[in-house]
Amino acid sequence: MRIDKFLSNMGFGSRKDVKILLKSKTVEVNGEVIRDAKQHVDEVADTVTVAGEEVEYAEFIYLMMNKPPGVISATEDKYDETVIDLLGEGERHFEPFPVGRLDKDTEGLLLLTNDGKLAHELLSPKKHVAKTYYARIEGHVTEEDGEAFKSGVVLDDGYQTKEAFLKILQSGAESEIELTITEGKFHQVKRMFESVGKEVVYLKRLSMGSLELDPELDLGEYRYLTEEELTGLKEKK
Ligand code: URA
């Protein structure tokens, strides 16, 4: 790949920025100063340094975002802001996409990556990756609802849901719950509660497989996954 693309991908700004950087004679490939933006480098075999610091090439990007409400889980949208719009240029040029969708009004954990293989594995219905949601529900949520979710409920389109686990945090006129499901049907949590005559008034995803939402992330913020989080996700899902 060209050195300007390599450095741009690694967060050194646009190709124009990289051209200026190259002019400053601080970029070396295998110990030789490089000034030509068109120069090719082998991302694996060559050693690239900028101002003496080695730049290791990473092909994939893995981010966790605390998705805010009002933003669409898509790479582009005609009318609304997307989760990709919330990323900086340094991340956007890797062309990440959201792994699965959260509704426009849903908040919480969203994984963004350009690693299609991992995304496919996490989303595959065969893998039964568990997703846990926190929700506030209008109406009293009961142990019977928990039993119903455990054995599976029938959604408005006739689909019978798989085993799901309900934890009642507080039951009242407005209840607070956590629900763990292993599938990802459209509006699944909302439709599961509809099937027992209740309405979700607030929904937030807390975890996906072994990956948990970092409580330090404010709405709209994101960060890179740690090595440990990534390994956990790849190994255990
Ligand atoms: N279930 C829903 O109803 N909405 C979401 O965004 C995610 C799960």
What does this entry look like structurally?
23% of the residues lie in helices and 26% in strands. The chain is α+β, with helices and mostly antiparallel strands. It folds into three domains: 3-54, Structural Genomics Hypothetical 15.5 Kd Protein In mrcA-pckA Intergenic Region, Chain A, CATH 3.10.290.10; 62-125 and 211-236, Alpha-Beta Plaits (2-Layer Sandwich), CATH 3.30.70; 131-208, Alpha-L RNA-binding motif (Alpha-Beta Plaits), CATH 3.30.70. The strands form two sheets. Strands 5, 6, 7, 8, 9, 10, 11, 12 and 13 form a nine-stranded mixed β-sheet that branches. Strands 2-1-3-4 form a four-stranded antiparallel β-sheet, with no helix packed on it. α1 packs across α2. The longest helix is centred in the N-terminal third of the chain and has 9 residues, at 15-23. Bound molecules: uracil (URA).
Reconstruct the topology from this structure:
Elements: H1 3-9, H2 15-23, E1 27-29, E2 32-33, E3 48-50, E4 53-54, E5 62-67, H3 89-92, E6 97-98, E7 107-113, H4 116-123, E8 131-138, H5 143-151, E9 165-170, E10 174-181, H6 188-195, E11 199-208, E12 211-212, E13 222-224, H7 227-235
Parallel strand pairs: 7-11
Antiparallel strand pairs: 1-2, 1-3, 3-4, 5-7, 5-13, 6-7, 8-10, 8-11, 9-10, 11-12
Helix pairs in contact: 1-2
Bound molecules: uracil.
